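Quick illustration, no need to memorize.
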Amino acid sequence: MFLTISTTGTPERPATDLGFLLHKHPDKAQAFSTSHGTAHVLYPEASAERCTAALLLEVDPVALVRRGRGKGSGGAPDSALAQYVNDRPYAASSLLSVAMSTVFKSALRGVCAAMPERAASPLPLRIEVPALPARGGADLVRKLFGPLGWDRVEAEPVVLDEQFPEWGDSRYVRLTLEGELRLADALRQLYVLLPVLDDAKHYWVAPDEVDKLLRAGEGWLADHPDQKLITSRYLSRRWGLTRQAAERLELVRLAESDDLEVEDVDNAVDETKDTEERPVPLAEQRRAAILDALRTAGASSVLDLGCGQGQLVQALLKDTRFTDIVGVDVSVRALAVAARRLRLERMGERQSGRVTLLQGSLTYTDKRLKGYDAAVLSEVIEHLDLPRLPALEYAVFGSARPHTVIVTTPNVEYNVRWETLPAGHARHSDHRFEWDRREFRDWAARVAERHGYGVVHVPVGDDDPEVGPPTQMAVFTLAAADQAAGARTTGARAAGARPAEYPDPDPASPAGTTITTTTTTTTKEGAA
């Protein structure tokens, strides 16, 4: 990635003053480490008449891929080759913007202690970017830079292949800007508009990006005729962040028109008082919906299948109507965390008699799980590969056969409403799939019909009229004829007798370890 900044001067005001404004000496070639490679600053020419500073960014494709797997990346990765072979090291993008903010930090703020009057004055500038991706073509480049005070905005399309002109132009242009602007203003415009034209960012777009946009857009963005497009693209089309930025930019515009400070315009809220109602986290809403469904079903013995770190088990223990609670997870580590969360070692005998933690796989039938009133699969099925889902269906609905089964899973349609979730990504990196409402209903209908259950669907969270709720929940109820047979098994288990269909387990089958039982810690073998 490469850009040059040139200016002209006179013996009284030499062009080499550019070195003071950029805080980089013209006689030195300097290198700076960035999170994705190395940025070099050098001066191809430096005289009193003309001075050119060049920023060259060498992108490390391996570092780019590794950092791209950070927090919140989610979803399936791109193909292995595409992660390394792409245009990122060669074309100006958000990578170059970040390098500019790192290397020219003081210049972006317009700070120069040695020459404050020079930093505050317009300079004759010429900026060149040899390869700029422009989704929207040369016309969009001219539309975005044209209103910003440049005398000349030249965007020359780059052909796909000079040997095959019939293939037409690529999405890249050679950008040349000429005019008299403050250096800080020119750098801020580039900082915002490079990723806008690329229409992509290499990093996670968090809420603090709104502050970055407003700082860099100070003095020009509020009145730009394409403000909405710039804001939307810069914030990666996160509608919530875009709306927030638009509201704040409108305040800036109103303040400037009335010659006031923004704080004097936006004074309707007393910030000394916290009157805003905090939203209830979705995880809490989900647990509340599950508890509601269990109470409605009249369940007293409950299986939490895929219990993880025991949040739902903890909530069940707070309600005395749930007398027999079993948490099951394949991860021994998760069960150990759950045991610490529940404080099993300090729990009284009566309370500990209500809870059991078992290690086991939900894709195997397990006779320890038979005879319970209800089973919960909360945010579990999406962690399974689709070919293994039928095994879980049979283990729960065909073998364990609780009277009630509650299944929750993300609604992929709602993902567009998450401000910080990149488009096309899943909510969690371990999700193997995420279903829309139709897919989930079709699956639930097939399972219910195959195993003799009825099913109803319940939205969890805000039920958006366009995309539905963030979580979808299905409540399966066993048909009446099967409930009668299940009641005999439940009664036998409650009385302490082992029912006929619950023989001594086969030691050769996959085993599960009981982390805690009603009195002492023991080990049970589970039958597959």
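The first strand starts at residue 2 and ends at 8.
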